Amino acid sequence: MLAWLRSHAAELGRFGVVGFAGVIINLAVFNWLRLGPLSEDSTFLGAQDRVVTAKVIATVVSVIFAWAAHRWWTFRGQRTHRPARELAIFAAVNGVAIVAEAGVLAISHYVLEFTSLAADNLASVLGIGVGTVLRYVGYKMFVFGRRDAPAAAASASADAD
Predict the structure, then answer these.
(1) What are the tens digits of pLDDT across the range 12-41?
(2) CA distance 26 to 69
(3) What is the dihedral sign for C-alpha 28, 31, 34, 35?
């Protein structure tokens, strides 16, 4: 595990920087929507208290930023797909992460009835943590993974025998 961490330290560092910026973007957009256009007092989108809608919109904004940053910085030498296909796979991985993030917030806000702004932000941060793990694994496996990885793994396994 320590050898893997050392060999991936630069990539994990870049992933962390992009992730930190994405979290700031996510929380900023979420709070702007939660306190503004999607607040309890607003009639925007025809309903009140659209906290999960605000979360999904904020996450989509941060995901678009993250795709560009990861494509051209974090995983710059590991692109294996054309941009449109890569973005589609990236969107699918993030779809899973968005459901996880919004699910944490929905459970906190609607099931446990922790409805304060502080509680919503704490649930949002917890959901971002769950989503981050899902994203890193998904990006490495499906979005930016090397096409020759399965062949290299099979070769290494054969060499060990």
Answers:
(1) 888 889 989 998 999 999 999 888 877 766
(2) 15
(3) negative
